[in-house]
Amino acid sequence: MANIKVIVLPVRPQPDTLVAIFLLKRFGKEKFPGVEDAALEIWQTMPVGKSAEVLEEEGHILIDIGGGKFDHHNQKGKTTASQLVADYLGISEDASIAKLLEYAYRDDIFGKGTVSEDSIDRAFGLSAIIYTLNKNLPKNPQKVMDIILPILISHHNEELKRTKELPEEFNKKMEDGTVRTLEVKQRGKKLKVIFIDSESPSMSGYLRSQNGGKFDVVAQRSQTGHVNILTRQAKHIDLRSLAVVLRLEEISARGRNLEFSAADLSRTGRVKEVPEWYYDRATNTIQNGGVNPKEVEPTAIFWEKMPQLLTVGLSEEIWSPIESK
Questions:
Q1: DSSP characters over 253-285
Q2: Domains contained in the chain, number
Q3: Residue 324 in domain
Q4: Which of 116, 236, 237, 265 has the most crowded CB, counting CB atoms within 10 A?
Q5: Do residues 198 and 218 touch, judged by C-beta distance below 8 A?
Q6: Is 1 inside a domain boundary?
Q7: Average pLDDT, stretch 201-214?
Q8: Minimal CA–CA distance to 66: which of 48, 84, 51, 83?
Q9: Segment holding 191, helix H or strand E
Q10: Number of other CB atoms surrounding residue 63 within 10 Å
Q11: Average pLDDT over residues 263-275
């Protein structure tokens, strides 16, 4: 078989066929050499006297045309082109593509790529974006594909982390005993807190998810020593007292001769005299540099002391923003 040079569709790219193309380019290199660089063409009719199998031998993969293995119109029952591709490549059970397959099926079979009835959600949902791209680029399906594929790649990268890489990293750290968890009460609410070393920006999101343990507060330290504290927003955790505790400890650890009231140290944003910590009420996080620290120095607070500080801060032992009003 010749290297695959062209992927052929019968009409402009749709969510299902775009997912099918993504799967072929991401997972189909062994069975279809060259497919990762294949261009996209639209054929309304088949070349006379040539079948999908013959055209494949000549370097063309046909999707939803020609009655070949990826033409879901030629199949019994309700299926999609993307599902046929996944089945053929042996990846149907791969958890990292489950949402992509479900999205393609829902859009193709039920016309519900976006379920929300909100007009903004519908206007900016992926199905609507694909539709408007096709309207604006009617003679350039290749560009539509080139715009959408990076979005699908980004989604899959995150799903790969969520379903495989992050669970593996977390489980290994648990086995190594480098993860610490504790429970704190804040105004009657029980908070699950976890402390972890990780370089992955996605780790905190995973740990706050159902699959990752549904932790309410994640303290994550990077190799540089920066520590960021993130919360599960649905729990509505008050971080003002913790901001006070962390800033007081930072002042002490650095030997700064400063005096502030608790109210001053609980302020949102950055306190100029304690620039290491940024309290963001919008995301309900306290960040020591965030994902890209740049000029922000790592905290001088010992990592081993963090569990004690978070316990005191979250439980509002030394200062309560409610009682101080």
A1: HTT------HHHHT-SEEETTEEEEEEETTTTE
A2: 2
A3: no
A4: 265
A5: no
A6: no
A7: 95
A8: 51
A9: strand 189-197
A10: 27
A11: 96
Please give the Cα distance from 151 to 167 (Å, whole number).
23
Helix (H) or strand (E) holding 183: strand 180-186
Q: Which band of pLDDT confidence, cut at 50, 70 and 90, is reported for residue 75?
A: confident
- Amino acid, single-letter form, for residue 117: E
- Partnered with residue 197 across adjacent β-strands are 221
- Among 138, 165, 192, give the residue marking a domain's end: 165
Radius of gyration of the CA atoms of the chain, in A: 26
Domain enclosing residue 204, as ranges: 179-315
How far apart are alpha carbons 212 and 203 in whole angstroms?
9
Instruction: Return d(Cα 104, Cα 23) in angstroms, integer.
Output: 12
SS3 119: helix
Do 158 and 86 reside in the same domain of the chain? yes
**Residue 96 domain flag:** yes
Name every residue whose Cβ is closer than 8 Å to that of residue 113 and which is 6 or more positions away in sequence: 15, 103, 106, 107, 125, 126, 127
pLDDT in tens, 142-165: 999 999 999 999 999 999 999 999
State whether 136 and 219 are in the same domain: no
Smallest CA-to-CA distance from 244 within 158, 148, 173, 321 is with 321
Instruction: Answer whether 0.90 is exceeded by the pTM.
Output: no
Res. 51 pLDDT band, cuts 50 70 90: very high
Q: Which helix (H) or strand (E) holds 6?
A: strand 6-9
Residues 159 and 13 in one domain: yes
In the predicted model, is pLDDT for residue 324 greater than 70? no
> Same domain for 152 and 52?
yes
- DSSP alpha helix (H) spans, 177-283: 203-208, 240-253, 262-265
